[in-house]
Structure formats: C-alpha cells, structure tokens
C-alpha cells in the first residue's frame, strides 16, 4: 500500500477500478456457478418428479389389471376384461418410459427389470390362469379358489413392493436434489450479498485512498497557492517529492514560491535603493536638521564653561546649560535614528503601529527640505484611526516618496501658493485612507494610466521607480493606491489600507506644521 501514493493518478484510478471489477467478477462467477447448480438441480427434480409420476401410472395400471380380473371373476362379464387389457398396455408404456428416464441409473434399471418380471409372472401365472379357468364353467370354482389362495396375493404384493422400492429410491433422490438446490440458492444469495458488500467496501476504501492521495493533497495545494497569492511565503508546499501528478504540481508550486521569494527579495532591494536615493536627495536638509541641535549643544557647552569660570561659579546656570545640552543631544539622536530606520536594508517584521505617529516622524525628517522650497505643509490627521498592521518602514517610505514628489513638483512654480496637505481618515469599510494634496503643476489626464508603471517618469533625472514601488508596497499590505487631479491645480495621491482589529486610537493631530 505504501507504493500506492507514488502511482500516477491514472494508474490509481485504474487500480481502484480493477479492484472493484475483480470483486464483482469473482462474486458473479460464484453466483453464476451456483445458478447453474440450481438449474441442474431443478431439472433433476423435474426428472425425478416425472419418474414418480410414471411409477404412479404403472401402479394404477397394475391396479386396473387386478380390478378387471377380480370383476370378471365376480360377474363373469367380459367387459371387465377391458380394463385388464388396457392396464397391461399402460403398464408396458410406463415400464418403457421408466427405462428411458432412468437410463443413467443402473440400479434403477435392474429394479425395473425385476418389476417387469414380477408383473409378467403375475399376469401369466395368476391373471391369465384365472381368466382361462373362469371362461370354462366347469373350472370356475377352481378360478375362485385360485383367487383366494396365497399365491395370487403374494404375486401382487411382490409387484407392489418392487414399485414401493423404486418409489422410495426416487423420493430419496428428490430429497437430496432439493437439498442441493436449497444450498445452491443459499450460497448464491450469500455471495450476492457478500459480493455487493465487498464491492461497496472496496469502493469506499479506494475512495478513501483516492481522497487521501488525490483530493486532500489537491485541497492542501490549493490552500498553499492561496496563501502564496496572499504573500505568505512561510508556508510549506505539501507533496514535494511525490512521483505522481500531485508531486509535479507541488514542484511547480515550489518553483512559484521560490520565484515569489526572489521577487520579494528583489523588490526589497529595490525599495531599499529607493529609500537611500530619497534620503540622498534630502542630504542638505538632513545636515541642517542635525546641525541645529549640535550647534545648540556647542553654544550651551560654551555658556556652561563661562558660568563655571565666574567667581564664584554659577552652578544653577551650569545645570540649566547641561540640561539643554542633553535635550539637544537627544534631538540629534532621534533624527539620526529616523534616518537609520529608513535606510536599514532589512526592515523589521510587520507589527501594529500608529499611522499618525509614522506620518509625523516622516514630516519631522523632511521639515527643512519643505522650508527650503517655501512649501506650506499642513496635516489633518484623524484621531479615531485604528492601529495599522504592517511594515512601518515601508509605509513611511510611501509617505516620504509622496511628500518629496510633491515638494519637487512645486519647486518650479514662479507664482502662486505652494501648499501640501497630508490627511489621514477612516474610509467607508473601516480601513484607513491617506491623502497627499499638492498645488504643483499636476499631470496630464493621458498619463494617469502610466503614473504607477515602472520606469515611467516626468522628471528630467528621475528613474520612474518611486511610485511603482509605493504602489507595490501598498498592494502587499492589501491596499490600493491611485492618483487624481487637484483643483484648481496640482495632484492628489491617495492610498488605502484594509481594516484591522482596532487598537488604541492615537491622539488627534490637526493643525499647521510649525516652520521656522
């Protein structure tokens, strides 16, 4: 049975079919044999019944002969001899028929010979003599005396005895054949039931085996493919290494899984490159952002030295200066931590986090870039958002790309307000909707279908991968990303994230970002 799972599916079905057919064939052969036995026993019973009926006919013929002779002796009327003569003829016919019916039974043939001799002896020595004596009036008394003698009675008793002997043998044969027929009926009935039950059990067993070796693996394979389609590459592919079609399917799914893993690895590398490129664009702003707390720390350190050099030293002012130095150092450390998180090659695993806090961390990182291009950045962050389950760094990368793209789109404007608004809100299905609205040059209606295509760009020095990566990141989180035109000008980029179990809602953040 251990070799059964390794067979091809067609061979499995053939084995199952052959097993059922074999059981049906064997049981049918046995039933057919018993039916033949039943038919043979039935024919033999009919034959034996015919023999018994013929024996009855022979017995009645002997009785007719005896009654005819007796009637003639009592009345002397010749008409009583008619049954005698007719009975003799019928008896002869019966004997010949019995010989034909029992031609295959030498013992019965011998008994029939004895019966015929006894009957012939009775007719010649008793019946014919009585008729001859009765025909002569002088010898009628002798005829009556012969009738009353033991010789006449003995001869007829011998004939009846031989008939009874033959009848008993035939009835014994009839009983034996009846037993054979009933046994054949019982065996045929039992084999029909057992054959049907065995066929049913075999069919059920083969069905279970086929279910375990075909249906269940295919179901598990379907579940595995569905999990892979959802992006779960941690699932194991069942059936790898099998020698049948399921094994071939498993091998194909394993290749599909490896391709997904490779694609995710390539996508992660590309996303990492995009983050580094984006952070590289913000080098001047990041340097300015880091320089501010460092310069403040240096200034506070010089002030502390002056307070220490006073006579007497002003320790309260020194303590205050050191507190400010520690705060500036922490501020600089936070900025560097944000940058390190964004450019880390291997982002942390998915977890639940506050999306509003992630947005504010990105805004803090690009604040100087926004100010340098004289852009007014506003936030409208809903306070009743559920926590998001996903990769915080990847989603921050999406927000960072949208902000940087908006700032670059408005950098070339010579007139008009440069406004950028970041919004978060709950959508109609309980998920989260994030929007980035700018007042830049916008895009042509014909390019809407190409904005998210890889290597499509409207920037002179762009590579066209930023929005494609952003869309793939959002799609990997089960969301959707799209773009529309803003009024009176500019663009709106939006993406949704599916609803998750609501966590603690973040505090509401709503207002204009301080600049300056």
UniProtKB/TrEMBL annotation:
Residues 98-125 form a coiled coil. The chain crosses the membrane at residues 13-32, 186-210. Its EC number is 2.7.13.3. It is found in: Membrane. InterPro entries: CHASE3 (IPR007891), HAMP_dom (IPR003660), HATPase_C_sf (IPR036890), HATPase_dom (IPR003594), His_kinase_dom (IPR005467), HisK_dim/P_dom (IPR003661), HisK_dim/P_sf (IPR036097), Sig_transdc_His_kin-like_C (IPR004358). Keywords: ATP-binding, Coiled coil, Kinase, Membrane, Nucleotide-binding, Phosphoprotein, Transferase, Transmembrane, Transmembrane helix, Two-component regulatory system. Residues 212-265 form the HAMP domain. Residues 285-501 form the Histidine kinase domain. The keyword Membrane applies. It catalyses: ATP + protein L-histidine = ADP + protein N-phospho-L-histidine. Its main location: membrane. Gene3D superfamilies: 1.10.287.130, 6.10.340.10, Histidine kinase-like ATPase, C-terminal domain (3.30.565.10). It comes from the Bacteria. This is histidine kinase. It comes from Bradyrhizobium septentrionale.
């Amino acid at each position: 049975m251990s070799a059964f799972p390794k067979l091809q599916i067609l061979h499995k079905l053939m084995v199952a079919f052959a097993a059922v057919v074999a059981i049906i064939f064997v049981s049918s052969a046995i039933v057919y044999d018993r039916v033949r036995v039943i038919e043979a026993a039935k024919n033999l019973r009919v034959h034996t019944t015919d023999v018994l009926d013929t024996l009855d006919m022979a017995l009645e013929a002997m009785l007719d002969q005896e009654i005819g002779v007796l009637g003639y002796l009592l009345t002397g009327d010749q008409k009583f001899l008619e049954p005698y003569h007719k009975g003799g003829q019928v008896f002869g016919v019966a004997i010949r028929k019995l010989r034909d019916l029992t031609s295959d039974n030498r013992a019965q043939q011998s008994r029939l010979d004895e019966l015929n001799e006894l009957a012939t002896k009775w007719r010649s020595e008793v019946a014919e003599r009585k008729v001859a004596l009765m025909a002569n009036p002088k010898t009628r008394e002798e005829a009556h005396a012969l009738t009353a003698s033991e010789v006449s009675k003995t001869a007829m008793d011998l004939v009846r005895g031989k008939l009874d002997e033959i009848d008993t043998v035939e009835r014994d044969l009839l009983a034996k054949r009846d037993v054979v027929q009933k046994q054949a009926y019982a065996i045929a009935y039992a084999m029909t039931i057992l054959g049907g039950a065995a066929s049913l059990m075999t069919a059920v067993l083969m069905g279970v085996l086929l279910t375990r070796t075909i249906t269940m693996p295919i179901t598990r394979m379907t579940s595995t493919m569905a999990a892979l389609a959802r992006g779960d590459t941690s699932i194991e592919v069942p059936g790898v290494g099998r020698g049948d079609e399921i094994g071939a399917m498993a091998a194909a799914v394993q290749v599909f899984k490896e391709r997904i893993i490779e694609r995710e690895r390539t996508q992660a590398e590309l996303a990492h490159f995009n983050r580094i490129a984006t952070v590289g664009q913000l080098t001047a702003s990041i340097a300015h952002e880091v320089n501010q707390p460092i310069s403040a720390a240096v200034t506070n350190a010089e002030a502390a030295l002056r307070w220490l050099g006073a006579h007497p030293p002003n320790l309260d002012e020194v303590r205050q200066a050191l507190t400010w130095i520690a705060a500036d150092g922490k501020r600089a450390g936070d900025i560097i931590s944000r940058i390190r998180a964004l450019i880390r090659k291997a982002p942390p695993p998915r977890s639940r986090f506050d999306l509003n806090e992630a947005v504010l961390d990105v805004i803090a990182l690009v604040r100087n870039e926004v100010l340098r291009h004289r852009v007014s950045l506003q936030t409208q962050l809903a306070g009743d958002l559920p926590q998001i389950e996903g990769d915080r760094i990847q989603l921050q990368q999406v927000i960072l790309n949208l902000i940087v793209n908006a700032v670059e789109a408005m950098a070339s404007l010579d007139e008009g307000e440069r406004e950028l608004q970041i919004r978060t809100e709950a959508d109609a299905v309980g998920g989260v909707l994030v929007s980035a609205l700018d007042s830049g040059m916008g895009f042509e209606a014909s390019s809407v279908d190409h904005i998210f295509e890889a290597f499509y760009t409207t920037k002179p020095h762009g590579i066209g991968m930023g929005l494609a990566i952003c869309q793939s990141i959002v799609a990997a989180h089960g969301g959707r990303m799209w773009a529309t035109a803003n009024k009176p000008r500019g663009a709106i980029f939006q993406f949704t994230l599916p609803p998750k179990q609501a966590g603690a809602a973040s505090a509401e953040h709503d207002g204009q970002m301080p600049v300056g």
